[in-house]
Write a structure and sequence with these properties.
282 residues; alpha/beta; Rossmann fold; 5 strands; disordered N terminus; disordered C terminus
Length: 282
Amino acid sequence: MHFIRLVAVLCCLQITAALPASAQIYDMREMNTADIASLDLQKTVVIIPGGVLEEHGPYLPSYTDGYSNEYLTRRVAEAIVARAGWTVLIFPQIPVGDGGANQVAKKNIFPGTYHLHFSTLRAVFMDIASELGEAGFRRIFVISGHGAIQHQLALDQAGDFFNDTYSGTMVHLTGVIAPARVLPQLGLTNDETAENGFDVHGGMNETSRMLFLRPDLVRPGYKTAQPQSGTTWRDLVNRGGASNWPGYFGSPRVATASREVRRSCERKRRRCRSLHLRFSTD
């Protein structure tokens, strides 16, 4: 496990070797008024990491998405400051979101899911965008990988508001990177692929991710977890309709940290390409 995690860090942080000595990534929580006032706003990107309290079954923490967003935020920040002259200001994480996978199962109340309504979430991000816009910031990335459609729409609309009002660029970054349906060489056998099925929540994907990021928070019972699989959304609704549905879809027991290592390296390449395109007109 330690070797796998070392490989993960080396693979996903290799971009840091190219960081210029003047590269700066700041944590807004630690800055005073003079620090913030001294920033070159035209060359500063604000990154707002998101999160959501959403049940992830009996093996993963409800803040699984938040831990992923924290990790992605740091990697994206490093990619930005690798460009000469750029600074990143990381905003405090916004630990709320709209919707939960339990709603797919038509269970509106489920232990671990505590969500905001769409209008509330949108207002939160619009208010933050207004404050940043009035302060003179013009580039904002939101990193919030929660898959609920209304959640993503709220962030997109907050970005549209900022762009129209302040003539800046606020992008829900994780919403513009298309997920790959066929992921690179994850080492799944045909039987494992069939067992995992339509993996949208708490299955092989997210369990592998947490084994990579925070193995201390993954309960060991995942190794014997019974699959909750299907090939369509209708299959998942039917699965979730059972009174004993455990809160995940897919098959956690086929997860390994090394599969997330491979995913992370591929995502890093796609993310850096996206960042290059995003800044190529600046």
